[in-house]
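*Target chain*
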Amino acid sequence: MRNILKKGMAILLAVSVTAALAACGGQSASSGESGSGEKKSVVVGSKDFTENEIVAEIYALALEDAGFKVERKMNIAGSVVHTSITSGEIDLYPEYTGTGLITILGMEALTDQDEVYNTVKDAYNKQFNITWLDYAQANDGQGLFISRKASDEYGITNISQLQANADRLRFCSQGEFDEREDGIPGLTRLYGEFNWKSSKIYDNGLKWEVVDNDEADVATAYTTEAHLTETDKYVLLEDDKHMWPPYNLAPIVRNPAVCNEDRILRA
């Protein structure tokens, strides 16, 4: 499986980065080397959760297979990873189209995955000098889950029902979700206020344990997290008013890392 994923991602990155060379006026250089012959590192970053770290590692392995020297800077907080790439601390990382649309660009949610992708691709190139490469079909969206016990007790299977019963429920927050535009602020505008019985901040990795220990009833999740399908202890709530856009995953790359006066990356 590792080799299949790595080869697939290598093809994706090789084709995408090579295509980007057209914008460099047909210049050429040795793979990952400066004019002085010194090998340059491509700095691959990731956000601070397992899926993003795994995908970023696949990117890194693919680039190494293509002959690049790779430096890894993983486990960057989601609240600062955009600053890391725009400042040049990292060259690329896996990002989600819906996050780019709502959280970074502050735009209204769209539902068509191609429209979301094309919108963020154009805006990032113009505003941040960053290129979105081809996106994966997998959609790892934002979500909220509730314990099966609370779902059965209060008849909650969607977010409208959650909002109506929020005063009976304890929310397990990860902090950032309370501030993000595709978190509580956006949900409140669409669904109404969530007047939780209580809301406490926990580390993201503890949320399943917190709910299992009956310390909270509701928490955030990414819709592809394995816990949601490995057991029937949790109910992923339907986003019945369609708050969240598609969250297709793609490598995003600083344009100077693809082409500048000093070097051109050729996959």
